[in-house]
Design a protein that fits this description.
This protein is of the alpha+beta class. The two termini are 27 Å apart. A hairpin with a 6-residue loop joins strand 7 and strand 8. The longest helix has 21 residues. A 7-stranded antiparallel β-sheet has the order 1-9-6-11-4-3-2. A 4-stranded antiparallel β-sheet has the order 5-10-7-8, with no helix packed on it. 26% of the residues lie in helices and 30% in strands. The chain has a single domain, classed as Sandwich (Jelly Rolls). The structure holds N-oxalylglycine (OGA) and manganese (II) ion. The site of N-oxalylglycine has 9 residues, from strand 10 and strand 11. Manganese (II) ion binds next to loops.
Length: 200
Amino acid sequence: MDTILNNIHEYGYAVIEDALPEGVIERLLTDCLENQPDFKAAGIGRRQDSQLNEQIRKDKTLWLTGASTAQADFMALTDELRLEVNRNFFLGLFDYECHYATYEVGDFYKKHLDAFKGKSNRVFTTVCYLNTPDAGGELLIYAQDSDEVIARVAPKAGSLVVFESERFPHEVLVAGSARYSIAGWFRMNNSIVGTIDPPS
Ligand code: OGA
Ligand code: MN
């Protein structure tokens, strides 16, 4: 927990290996695999143009509801993180939303931001990896307003990445084998922002 908080404080992002207990990761992966039939092509913002969409991202997603023990355990852990982040940074993060994401061979997610200043109440993005793909699927984190790659993360089961949603453009490189993860967002209850979050 201290590593996460220190790195967020110093750099605005954190990459932590073995962040979650192995048993939890195994159960989440099983849950994720069992639910594959319900996964849907992911959307981007409000653009429902599926052709345009496919040029930007090719993953399939399913929102977690807490319905299974694995999901409930994960949400209990992220809630601990939410409270610690609030306590340390004097923030009022009030909510966490997350979805499973499946990248099949050849799938990718081009460089993007998860939130735009004043347009979203997403404050921190989290990505938790459920398996270790044999090849590809690296997460690239870019410096703010730049093409400079500041972190290159090879997905590994149990690793957790946290970063400021408005600050870091990022990208998922083409997956060379199936890649399973949970992407999530800690949100601020920002009533000034009249816009509804795009259904990721
Ligand atoms: C996302 C995302 C990164 C990853 O789902 O918005 O950027 O490494 N995911 O899966
Ligand atoms: Mn993203």
